[in-house]
Amino acid sequence: MKKKMPLTLYLILKSPLTLFGAVLVILLILMAIFAPLIAPYNPNRISLREKLAPPSLKHPFGTDEVGRDLLSRVIYGSRISLQVGIVVVLLAGIPGILIGAFSGYYGGQFDNIIMRLMDIVMAFPPLVLALSIAAALGPSLVNSMMAVAFIMIPKFSRLVRGETLSLKEKPFVLATRAQGGKPLYIIFRHIIPNSLSSVIVLASLVMGDAILVAASLSFIGLGAQPPTPEWGALVSVGRKYILDQWWYATFPGLFIFLAVMGFNLFGDGLRDILDPKIRGR
Amino acid sequence: MEELIRLENVKKYFVKKSVLGGKKVLKAVDGVNLRIERGETLGLVGESGCGKSTLGQVLLNLLPPTDGTIYYEGKDLTKIPKNEEQKLRRKIQIVFQDPYSSLDPRMTVGAILTSPLKIHNIGTKKERIEKAKETLAKVGLPLPRLDRFPHEFSGGQRQRIGIARALILDPEFIVLDEPTSALDVSVQAQILNLIRKLREELNLTYLFISHDLSVIKYLSTRIAVMYLGRIVEIGKTEDIVKNPIHPYTKALFSSILPPHPPDGEKKITTLEGDVPNPTNPPSGCRFHTRCPYAKPICREVEPKLKTVQGEHKVACHLVI
Amino acid sequence: MEELLKVEGLHTYFHTYRGVLKALTGVSFSLYPGEILGLVGETGCGKSVTARSIMRLIKEPGKIEEGKILYRGKDLLSLSEEEMRTIRGKDISMIFQEPMTSLNPVLKIGTLMSEVIMVHKKVNKNRALNIAKKMLKEVKMPDPEGVLNKYPFELSGGMRQRVMIAMALSSDPEILIADEPTTALDVTIQGQILRLIIDLSQKRGTAVLLITHDLGVVANVADRVIVMYAGNIVEEGRVKSIFTNPSHPYTKGLLRSLPSLAKEGEELPTIPGTLPNLIYPPKGCLFYDRCDIREEYCKEGRPERFHLGEEHYVWCHKIKNEKMERLGYGRTD
Question: Which fold has domain B3-91+210-258+268-314?
């Protein structure tokens, strides 16, 4: 792997859109990690004297209805969004990968049943399904993450199943079978490691989707609850003031857009970069 | 000679269901009887789609046969209990054609070679690594460090690693499925020499599968010729080389292009026609559509393998 | 005889992230009307890159850095892409190893063929279909009429290669470049296609550049042979003299390592070592590391073309020096 990193880096640098996506993603991560250092104020500091102040040098993004600094809230919001993205990817990815690998490897009726279940989940519009799950569980950030994770599982399992179907016929898998390797061993030693590069691509795309869906849930009040500085929740409250205080909803919205675009561009680029046909050169 | 493997009427069919509900049966292997003696190299030659690779995989129990029995040292492979199967897995190994897809790109050479030992719970970690190094030296690829990945090696080196993986469990029998077809001539020669040397040093028995009769005849003690799922001729290498009888075997020999130019006019002799679709093989003798000597009987009755002389057997109506 | 195609000092490099891979460094040869010229060598020797360079089909990150490709005296490298397109497929046609990937799978053979013919011959669809049928007959396709109504996947590999040859020849090109045309085919089918190539070249007078790794194929099909190694030509000559009297140690080594010439039980002679690194190639002869007749002086400079006998050339310092010494010229280096 030591030798592969420079190649990946080289290919990222050669593709401007991927580079742009990567920069956005990295900035988002840095913002989340160093939030306390870069945020000019405590995101929850109320200052009623300054409520709904327009953008100024003191408050570059303006303030909200109780005078909290919006820039600081947006910066802290990145922590929540990133956390949502990571938790959703893990919560959807791990079961998704396992379901896909086992289903694809064993095949037959087992595979049929599992895949039809996945189809059922995928048949619903994601937002509507997430909405009903979140509503049933009760509005909270944790519940909305679980809802979003649930609807993302089929994405992972279908991808990994496809990879598994082709990998299980590969000579190196046949060789291990011929040497007495058990299915569990083959799945964990050959199938999953070899599916990981496409999983990483999907994970990046799902990160973006998850941030968006979670923000949407917060926007309609089913996710993070105020005063949590979640971007979707910020937009939701800011919506009331959109006509007179445009900055309130605009800046958090812009960050949702940038984060989602960052992950999507990065994921798309990564798909090309991890393509062995391109790497082979 | 001691019998190691016996195939009795082995068949392997693949059923393809089409979207419209139709069913197509591909008879990849259709009634093969074969004995492999301990210590010999049986060369299995035929064109693509003749079922030779499928036969190899059936023999390794990677594909369950549709019908028929496979005996290994007298034991029925298809009915063997799980714990004994695991033991047998150590004795039978396979080497594949493509040196690229036969090694897991995400595993180091060390992991590739020690994983069979791990599966069978052999030795400590240190001993396994020792064994891996030893085996690599045996295949002529001594490596001081095992932490390199397959893509860092050339095709020939990868094929050596593939052979080392097959050897690491100290097998008795190895199926070599076109082990040199993807390699350049000069590398092919190195690998063929290695395969031959290992046979002598380790007392191995081989099933050598190839489409290339010149390679088969160089390495094998006996040759079996396969056409559309059936064995059409089998015998000792010298008998087959000196006296090929089946028209298909003759055609295969005449289609070897010798590396010296013809005297006078260029001429290439070869069979006419195409290999028939194995989902719908011709009636009677499967070769009759391309056979220059076909008679009416060939269209109707399927010929059986008949002994010509000694071990030399042919399935052809024209041989009495 | 006047040459049809003359390649002069061709250098093609690939700019990879690891560095500049020098795939071809100074390839020069000529192709004469009506002959079959075999270009033979192992993986990585540059034979396919040569073919693609002639067709100007080198893709990023590859680039033709230097040299001339003269077709009837006109340098193909100086033409615009537009002008090159009219040459490609009309004057110079090419067929590939895997005919499936070169045929659009959703179009019928008739459509595929007639479209190409319409472009090159400037005729209407009906006329083009007639020419297609005639061409299929010429490549000995059984049931040409029926084949026109089939899709590529309905044909076997051999049949597809016949279609490719028919398409390539439909514009009456003067040169046919065949890149490993039989490598993906079964041995019995290989014979049919090779015979077809010989017949067509003799009947139509098409010059063929046959690229292959298979020495048996060149021996039986080609009139002249060029042996390539690591992006250079190492030996060139008439097929008879190359095979009966190979000179370059690489040619000799290749021929010796063929199992068809060995006896059972005999060890096959091999060529030790591997290809040199073409990103950082050595200064001297590229075969030096693997050569069994090498001398110290071989490390200095690339060998040049040396005339051995009638139309037989070799690129080897040692052979040249020995020959010159014998002729009384003394060492030339």
Answer: Rossmann fold (3.40.50)
